[in-house]
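Model it.
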Amino acid sequence: MDRGFRRVSARPPARAGTPRPRGTLRFWPQYVAVSPFFLLFAVFGLFPVGFSAWLAFHRWDGISPVTYAGLEQFRFLAEDATFRKAVVNTIVIWLLSTVPMLVLSLVIASLLNSVRRFKTFYQVVLFLPSVTSIVAIAIFFKAIFNSRVGLVNQVLEAIGLPAVEWLNGWWTIKIVLALLMTWQWVGYNAIIYFAGLQAIPGEVYEAAKLDGAGALRSFWSITVPMLRPIILFTVVISTITGMQTFTEPQVLFGSNDAVNPNSGGPGQAGLTMVLYFYQQAFNNNNYGYGAAIAYAVLAIVGIFALVNWRLVARSEK
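Modeled.
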């Protein structure tokens, strides 16, 4: 008796006269399902990038006919003293905010890691500033650092110190912006560092403690080296976001009633690169020059991000 088994095909027989689709055509329902994302990305992502690249070589005020300018706008950008001032302002604000912010975030994360109770509550409190509207935060800082009725000056006068023109000086404007950015993002980076600390085995710290290492020695010899990949991530992200500062100075000094709106406050001390781009493109209707500024900002941000990445990555070897 034949005990063999027939191999039964799992596929249903195709109907006569209806050939089955081959290759990628078989997955057309899936392609249709994800197509809205790619369509939106093409319209609101790729097209603006390509159009601004084309516009950087042309002159256009939004109404008049477009005229070809070649590299003239980039040559003017290289000689633009206001743009150089915006670059310096951006770098100074970035240094004043990013370096203390990341150090403070790491310290807060280490303290949070040693807490035994209410960890979730502390995490929520730390994360709240990063999900709060930047406009609301900027308005709040503008109020408390007001030169006449601000809370900070009232506290200084109460302890016998002179009031400070926070929103009028070259350095004080940058300090206020740096404090605003630090307050907003220190909790976000602390949560990221805290997640990295949770992945470090506790046995490593116990072994270091048995060898006589104190808390500070364990922090520098264990915590920092094992968090270097995460530190690299936060440094690069903080560089990219910090070099594109816009909303904070725009809300603090972007009054539409001013003669020169979005100029960055007194002496243009708060004028950043992105704010200067916004001023030229949308206040002066100089869209071609604004596009040139945008691509210059892209190049500068890319260079700074690459340099920071190489420095942190080199220290890891």
